Amino acid sequence: MFDNDALRYKYLKEYLSTFNLPKDFITYITQPNNNPSQHDYHNSRHCYTVSINCILASQYYRLTDNDIIELVIASIFHDWGHSGGELSDSENIDMAVIAYSSSVATYKLYLDHQSIIRLIRATQYPHMPVFELKEQIIQDADLLQYLHEDALLWMESFNNETGWHNSPKDVAEFLQSQRFNTEWAQKQSQKAVERLLKPSEANNDTSFTER
User: Fold this and answer.
1) CATH code, 5-202
2) I need a labelling partner for 93 at 20 to 30 A (CA). Which of 16, 39, 130, 139 fits?
3) Tens-of-pLDDT digits for all 211 residues of the chain?
4) Domain limits of the chain?
5) DSSP state of 81
6) Neighbours of 2 (CB within 10 A)
7) Which long-range contacts (CB under 8 A, 24 or more apart) does 5-8 make?
8) Is the pTM of the predicted complex or chain greater than 0.85?
């Protein structure tokens, strides 16, 4: 799996280029500084990671290209302009929907906008029960930042943003307490837990992706 932001950024930008999207729109959503949320944890890099998690889960379930691109775009926008704790998550989601809708108006995208907005709203935390597979995937993907090899750096980023003092054990317990929607996420979260609890051993295993 990915061990740094540069690899995630490169992968996502190349992946987006395989779809029939305006090039300037791809540039806009893959420029980290365009997302006004620049907090330690809630930032563009987090959104890119959620997008990649959605891609991996979508490939596991063999979703259509249309479903995948909706998930990717919804993931990129789901924390766009996040307040870093100053507002409720409902208000954060409203800002993300406004940012997405503004981009649609600017770049004249021909996508299922209501579906993408529904996916963005599905990420409001605490999560509400959802029953559509795409909504289940994006909820799970949003909780699996620690799936990647730089999990400990993300833990530190979360602690810096929130003022908390989570340890790897705390994060592992958080993951174990979650009711993941999908089989894919259940498998990946267990691997993330193993890495967090036994980093010296688990870091040698980079096979997070289900083939």
Assistant:
1) 1.10.1300.10
2) 16
3) 777 888 898 999 999 999 999 999 999 999 999 999 999 999 999 999 999 999 999 999 999 999 999 999 999 999 999 999 999 999 999 999 999 999 999 999 989 999 999 999 999 999 999 999 999 999 999 999 999 999 999 999 999 999 999 999 999 999 999 999 999 999 999 999 998 998 544 444 444 444 2
4) 5-202
5) T
6) 22
7) 5/45, 5/48, 8/45, 8/48, 8/49, 8/52, 8/148
8) yes
